[in-house]
Each structure stands twice: as C-alpha cells, then as structure tokens.
Prior knowledge:
Blueprint: E1 14-19, H1 26-37, E2 41-43, H2 44-54, H3 57-68, H4 74-85, E3 93-97, H5 103-115, E4 122-127, H6 130-144, H7 151-174, E5 178-182, H8 187-200
Amino acid sequence: MTPTSASGAAATSARFLIVGPQGSGKGTQGVLVAAAFGVPQVATGDIFRANVAGGTELGKRVQAIIEAGDLVPDALTSELVRDRLQQPDASAGFLLDGYPRNRGQVDDLDEFLASRGESLDAVIELEVPRDESIKRIHQRAVEQGRTDDTEEVIANRLAIYERETAPILDVYRARGLVLRIDGVGALADVTARIFEALAARGLAPRHPGAAA
Ligand code: AMP
C-alpha cells in the first residue's frame, strides 16, 4: 500500500510528462491520469490558445507562431511553465502535456526541478503511427474547429515533433523514466495500459475512481 500522510494524501510524488505526436490522444489520457493522481494537467498548447482567445499580451505575442504550427521560443515557454508549476496546486505533482518539446526545454525543466530538489517520476510515451495521428487530427479539427489544424500546419507540426520532440525521449529513456504505451485502440484500453505501466513502477493513483 502507498504510505499516506495525516491528510490522506499519498506520500509518493506524481510528476509526470506525457509525450506523443499530435493526435496521439495524449490530451485526453493526460486529463485522466492527472485526475486520478489528484494533480493538475498543465498543457502548454491549451494555455497558449486560451491567451490567444483572450487577447492577452502573451496571446498577441504567440498568435502567429501558433497559427503556423511553429514552436514558441523556449525562454517564453519555459517561463510560463515555471510560473504555472509554482502554483500551490502543483506542489505535490503535475502532469505536463506538450512540454518539454525540445532539448532546450528539457534542460530548462531539469534546472527548475533541480532548484526545488525535485525530479520526474515517469514519462508516458504514447505511440501512434503517423497515418493514425493525421486521421485523428483531421477529426479533431472538424469537431473542435481548431484554426491551427490546417493541412500545411498539421504537416509542419508533425515534422517538428519528429525532428525536435521525439529525440527528447532518448534523453528520458537513458534515465529509465519512459513508459512506452501502445496508443492505438479504444480510449479505455489505452487508459488501462497507462495505469498498468504506472502501477508496475509503484506509481498508484490517489483517486483511482477519477480515471473511470
Ligand atoms: P499543442 O496543443 O500542444 O499541439 O500546442 C499548440 C501550439 O502551441 C504548438 O503548435 C506551438 O505553437 C505552441 N506550443 C505548445 N507547447 C509548446 C512548447 N512546449 N514549446 C513551444 N511551443 C509550444
């Protein structure tokens, strides 16, 4: 059994990343994992889009970059994440979705966590073949009316994923943190695979019901 503190919260930390190409379902799965562990899901893409929609200063700075499917500069993105992770609700853990996305951001996150005496507990890699990702992105673009999901932008985003983001998995693999999950199949089956892999690492959810 996981040791619990007087407040009933699990003593183990839950600091996770979820990594996968656009259309891998990482947003959906990330929400479920975060809820089960009682930690916030921090999705940089969602934060940027909310700022664009709200017309904030940050939104104005990043709008053109996001619409082209390019990466927002590391310094700006890492500052945004550091601010978010310093909020009280992230003190016991977090699930990062969409960050880090390249080697520079891995270094920024390492530095931030080390300054707090913290480290990641697991990196969930969702594996989905390219064709399947493209199919799912198109479906989502139609369902959610995402303006950053045009043909050209999708191709650009996948190319950036393959060139810049996939290699960060090697860094985390060398640290023994990566849980490779087959992301093809029914949503619930993929969720079950993730929780099984986490449990095999001794990472048990605090609120298992929240994942149902
Ligand atoms: P996403 O929803 O994660 O695909 O993110 C949407 C867009 O936000 C991306 O295409 C980028 O323009 C930007 N973005 C999100 N996360 C990052 C990040 N970690 N670094 C740089 N840009 C990002």
